[in-house]
User: Which sequence fits this backbone?
């Protein structure tokens, strides 16, 4: 019984640690940002602009966006603007339904 409990606790923690390690944002490359539930498009766009980034795509059903910036520590700025999680977009866009924002600068 203890082995099962150990597996149920440690397994998901190891998967989360691997996701966070592999999904570390790379400076100058697009990132995906997860915002708090209920964050609308205008809130996400405002947070990205406050962090100095440009919106590339927005999720149609979730508070998730893909953006990019040439500034240093863009991920840190997104966290300061209210993002809950920031990951490299090359992995995350495989799992997110997004639509491209027309008129984006990039």
Assistant:
């Amino acid at each position: 019984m203890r082995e099962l409990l150990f597996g149920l606790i440690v397994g998901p923690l190891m998967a989360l640690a691997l996701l966070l390690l592999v999904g570390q944002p790379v400076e100058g490359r697009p990132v995906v940002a997860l915002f708090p539930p209920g964050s609308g498009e205008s809130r996400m766009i405002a947070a990205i602009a406050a962090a100095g980034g440009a919106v590339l795509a927005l999720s149609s059903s979730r508070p998730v966006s893909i953006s990019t910036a040439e500034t240093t520590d863009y991920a840190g700025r997104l966290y300061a603007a209210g993002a809950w999680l920031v990951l490299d977009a090359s992995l995350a866009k495989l799992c997110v339904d997004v639509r491209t924002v027309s008129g984006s600068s990039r």
